[in-house]
């Protein structure tokens, strides 16, 4: 084998070698062909791939605007390397951003990022919307609030007025014109027994003409010591219209025989044997009876005479004068209606 053969066999690519014939001193010295390509570095090797990548990349990778606008430039050979560098840089950036699999994933991530940015932006909107809504409707809200306050206040005021319309009541819930002078509990006048459900109001007159309400009350109290008889009444109305409560409501008084358990008794003083009530007594009786009817949900039909239970001549005048009794019941009814209206 000749020397040249050896050279040929050494693996040297003679196509790459050129002889500079114009230079006599270098007749045999090969000169490496100058190429446009850089020396055999990694990018040069991958340069052709770059072009392919560029083509394939264009579809899946939605390279944003800047790349699109550079479209013309990238087709020229001079910018090809720059393009490659750019793509590589972007791909690396996307990889570090956590999009490992594909260019499609990268664009999906971008979209997600955009959505999250929009979400963040829209999160502020409802709050600001609410604020602006409140601001623009502040007057209406104030009016509504005022209306609510007025409504509640008005209701409370009306209730208070209605309470006043029912007349003021004392500590035990009785009308304030009633004097509470309760008897001491004793088996002759105040047994301290609770009543059943109240179903009636029984009207009486005192046994002795000319006796005052106070004297009547004290007489009942005295029975606890004298043991003379068993007698009492829940209320006593005097000839001047005064009202004394001797036995509390809810407790049995000894006045109406077999109806003591489910009735309230009112005893009225009178001046003479005729037994007619004074105007003052009558007025107080109508008032008190109407109040009791309202308290116990009774009509005037539940208002009876002692006579209606035992045929005893009590209250005498209203047994003998049936029309006066009927007038009385009508007055009670009207008093109750007036009370409701006021
Ligand atoms: Zn009687």
Quickly give the CATH architecture of the largest domain: 3-Layer(aba) Sandwich
What percentage of residues falls in helices of 4 or more residues?
Answer: 40-55%
Beta-strand residue percentage: 5-15%
Measure the end-to-end span: 143 Å
Q: Low-confidence segments, ≥5 residues, pLDDT <50?
A: 1-10, 37-61, 63-75, 98-103
Concise structural overview:
This protein is of the alpha/beta class and 342 residues long.
Structure description:
With 342 residues, the chain is α/β, with parallel strands linked by helices. It folds into 2 domains: 81 residues, no CATH class; 164 residues, Peptidoglycan recognition protein-like (Lysozyme-like, 3-Layer(aba) Sandwich). 52% of the residues lie in helices and 9% in strands. The chain has 12 helices and 8 strands. The strands form 2 sheets. A 6-stranded mixed beta sheet has the order 3-6-5-7-4-8, with helices on both faces. A two-stranded antiparallel sheet has the order 1-2. α2 packs across α5. It is rod-shaped. 20% of the residues are buried. The N terminus is likely disordered. The chain binds zinc ion (ZN). The site of zinc ion (ZN) has 3 residues, from loops.
Task: For the structure shown, list the relevant keywords.
single chain, 342 residues, alpha/beta, Lysozyme-like, 2 domains, 6-stranded mixed beta sheet, two-stranded antiparallel ribbon, 12 helices, 8 strands, rod-shaped, disordered N terminus, binds zinc ion
């Amino acid at each position: 084998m000749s020397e040249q053969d050896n050279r040929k066999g050494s693996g040297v690519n003679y196509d790459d070698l050129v002889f500079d014939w114009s230079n006599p001193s270098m007749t045999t010295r090969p000169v490496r062909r100058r190429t446009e390509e850089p020396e055999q570095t990694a990018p040069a090797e991958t340069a052709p791939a770059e072009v392919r990548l560029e083509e394939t990349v264009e579809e899946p990778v939605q390279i944003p605007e800047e790349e699109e606008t550079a479209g013309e430039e990238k087709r020229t050979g001079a910018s090809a390397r720059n393009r490659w560098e750019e793509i590589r840089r972007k791909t690396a950036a996307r990889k570090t951003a956590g999009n490992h699999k594909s260019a499609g994933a990268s664009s999906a991530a971008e979209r997600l990022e955009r959505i999250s940015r929009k979400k963040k932006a829209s999160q502020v909107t409802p709050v600001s919307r609410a604020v602006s809504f409140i601001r623009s409707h502040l007057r209406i809200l104030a009016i509504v609030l005022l209306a609510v306050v007025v409504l509640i206040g008005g209701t409370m005021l009306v209730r208070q007025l209605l309470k006043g319309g029912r007349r003021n009541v004392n500590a035990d819930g009785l009308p304030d014109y009633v004097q509470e002078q309760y008897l001491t509990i004793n088996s002759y006048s105040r047994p301290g027994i609770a009543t059943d459900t109240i179903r009636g109001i029984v009207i009486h007159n005192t046994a002795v003409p000319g006796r005052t309400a106070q004297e009547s009350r004290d007489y009942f109290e005295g029975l606890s010591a004298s043991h003379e008889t068993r007698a009492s009444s829940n209320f006593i109305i005097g000839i001047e219209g005064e009202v004394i409560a001797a036995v509390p409501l809810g407790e049995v008084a000894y006045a109406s025989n077999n109806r003591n358990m489910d009735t309230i008794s009112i005893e009225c003083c009178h001046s003479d044997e005729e037994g007619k009530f004074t105007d003052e007594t009558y007025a107080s009786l109508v008032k008190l009876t109407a109040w009791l009817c309202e308290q116990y949900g009774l009509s005037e039909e539940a208002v009876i005479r002692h006579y209606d239970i035992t045929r005893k001549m009590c209250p005498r005048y209203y047994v003998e004068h049936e029309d006066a009794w009927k007038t009385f019941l009508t007055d009670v009814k009207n008093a109750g209606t007036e009370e409701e209206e006021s």
